[in-house]
Amino acid sequence: MELGGGGGDSAAMSARLSSDDAAAAAAGEDRLSTLPDDVLVLILILLKLSTPAPPPRPASSPTAGAASGLSALLPVLHFTSPPEPHRLRDAHEVLVRALFVGADGATPESLAVWLPAAARRVSGDLTLFSSGPVKDEDEEQAGQRGAFEFPCFEKATSISLDLAFQGLAVPPTGVFTRLTELHLSHVWFHGPGELGDAVSSRRCPCLQSLTVDNARGLRDLSIHSESLLVMVLRNLRSLSQLTVVVPALKELTVASCFLESRPVANISGPHLANLDWTDQYDPSSVHFGKMEHLRCLGTSFYLVYPHGVIYNHSCLTLFQRFEGIIIKPQKLTYPPLQEA
Questions:
Q1: Count of beta carbons in the 10 Å neighbourhood of residue 115
Q2: What are the extents of the domains in the chain?
Q3: How far is it, in rounded angstroms, from Cα 170 to Cα 149?
Q4: Cis upstream peptide for 336 (omega within 30°)
Q5: SS3 of 273, please?
Q6: Which of 22, 62, 97, 166 is the most buried (most CB within 10 A)?
Q7: 175-226-240 Cα angle (round to 5)
Q8: What is the pLDDT of residue 74?
Q9: Rounded CA gap, 125 and 158, in Å?
Q10: What is the mean pLDDT of the chain?
């Protein structure tokens, strides 16, 4: 094979390749998907899933299909205990599609060390959980062990934390640019950041589903969001004031949140279709805006006659507030009749 000379041949070959590329592009041929998987992963790593993402291309677009395939190639990491920070750092800061970490026995100090590294890496789902049961007497001890500040996950799309009442400080700044689902369970909230501010449209512009379950330390919760569709607030216990201004909201659950104080709430959800209010209701302090789309109302237990006159007052008052819709009591209770 001759290596020297042949300049004319090289020029002709380049022209032919350019012509072939132009023809393939004109025909809409997808050459990106034919590359080896390891090359595709390297391409995606270099792109680093730039945020905010551009408007989605039509489903029929070859580029859209290739991008979906690239995301599926990112690794998924599982740790049965909190990892050492160096295990989530390397020279290239390779992205991961999902990170699952068991947090049994984790301390605020250990969580504060490796979570910032994870925040730069997770481009999809983050799950941080403690599997062990928590006794009532252990809640106070867990909440008094201090707190770690949860970093801002700019690339994550779903976050689920179950922390056995570990202390959590909401980040006071930062934008969760791509987050659509947030689930917080068995969390003890500490300052200075506020949960309501963190899940607002300003800082969570894409959030559609929010669940806060069995949490402590929340007293005043104010949520203003243009994107939320589903919200579940359950067993917050110390909550004293709730403000919800969510125009697009379709489903709202508030259950066992006002256990230590008189409920004070202002709910504005004009497109709400399902309301599950299994909590105290006082029309003088709990205000619902216009809900012309409401179709179903869930309530707390209903104590059947003859003992229900006093216990059912809150429930019956709520029924009167929403007339002409389907009502679903959480439970019908029949107390045993006393013998004469």
A1: 21
A2: 73-193, 219-339
A3: 6
A4: no
A5: coil
A6: 166
A7: 85
A8: 73
A9: 5
A10: 76
Cis? peptide before 52, omega within 30° of 0: yes
Q: What pLDDT digit, counting tens, does each position of 71-82 carry?
A: 566 788 888 877
310, two tokens: 């006093």
Of 119, 24, 30, the residue nearest 67 (C-alpha): 30
* pLDDT score of 66: 46
Q: According to the model, what pLDDT value does residue 19 have?
A: 56
Round to whole Å and give the CA distance between 231 and 225: 11
Q: Are residues 121 and 97 in contact, defined by beta-carbon separation less than 8 angstroms? A: no
Q: How many CA atoms lie within 13 A of 266 on its CB side?
A: 7
Q: How confident is the model at residue 179 (pLDDT cuts 50, 70, 90)?
A: very high
C-alpha span between 161 and 167 (Å, rounded): 12
Give the tokens for residue 159: 């976050």
Tens digits of residue pLDDT in 274-328: 999 988 888 899 999 999 999 888 876 555 555 545 556 667 677 777 776 766 6
CB atoms within 10 A of CB 286: 23
CA distances from 68 to 27, 52, 60 (A): 21, 16, 12
